Amino acid sequence: MFRKMRRSTQALSREEIVDLLKNETRGVLSVQGDDGYPYGFPINHFYDEETGQLYFHGAAFGHHIDAIKRDPKVSFCVYGQDFVREGEWAKNVKSVVIFGKAEIVDDLSEVIRICRKICGKFPCPPGYVEEEIDKDAGRTMCIVLTIEDINGKLVNEA
Questions:
Q1: Distance between CA atoms of 50 and 33, rounded to whole angstroms?
Q2: DSSP string, the chain
Q3: Cα three-residue angle 157-19-101, rounded to 5 degrees
Q4: Which of 19, 65, 89, 158 is the one with CA 20 to 30 A from 107?
Q5: 82 vs 93, more confident
């Protein structure tokens, strides 16, 4: 159902994929938008190694929410900072591409748990996360992405 990576010699290991998902703070979530146009947008995420799922949070309405309700199939792309190996001139970049199904999270306690996990990736001041949860948890939408296919790749731009 999903295509194999054409240049398998560039494939990232499972550990490198997980490292990128855990350490990069945002990626691009793409949904099937209005009138058949794809819609991709940058969004913060949290990768849970225990469940193997990705989590997102944001407003409870919008283009992406409407699209997910209409068709839960999505893709998500994360890429790291480019780098140059010592003694070389060409840039390298690691990326991960995920295909899966997105689901809106309705349970408020789960929304709060997800928000704490996502915010834990950022250097927030003490008390900030709990203040935001108290203020906005009821208006926050969370999405869980169940991964159906995942691959990572190292590209050398030479």
A1: 31
A2: -PPPPS-GGGBPPHHHHHHHHHH--EEEEEEE-GGG-EEEEEEE-EEETTTTEEEEEEES-SHHHHHHHH--EEEEEEE---EE-TT--SEEEEEEEEEEEEEEE--HHHHHHHHHHHHTTS-PPTTHHHHHHHHHGGGEEEEEEEEEEEEEEEEE--
A3: 95
A4: 19
A5: 93
Contact residues for 11 (Cβ-Cβ < 8 A; gap 6+): 5, 151, 152, 153, 154
Tens digit of each residue's pLDDT (9 = 90 or more) over 95-134: 999 999 999 998 999 999 998 888 888 888 888 888 988 8
Q: What are the Cα distances from residue 19, in Å, to 37, 139, 147?
A: 31, 31, 16
Q: Find how far residue 58's CA is from the centre of its chain.
A: 13
Q: N- to C-terminal Cα distance for the chain?
A: 31
Q: For residues 17 and 5, give the distance between their C-alpha atoms in angstroms, rounded to a whole number.
A: 14
Cα–Cα distance, 100 to 85 (Å, whole number)? 33
Taking the C-alpha atoms of residue 98 and residue 125, their distance in angstroms, rounded to an integer, is 32
- CA-to-CA distance for 32 and 105, rounded, in angstroms? 19
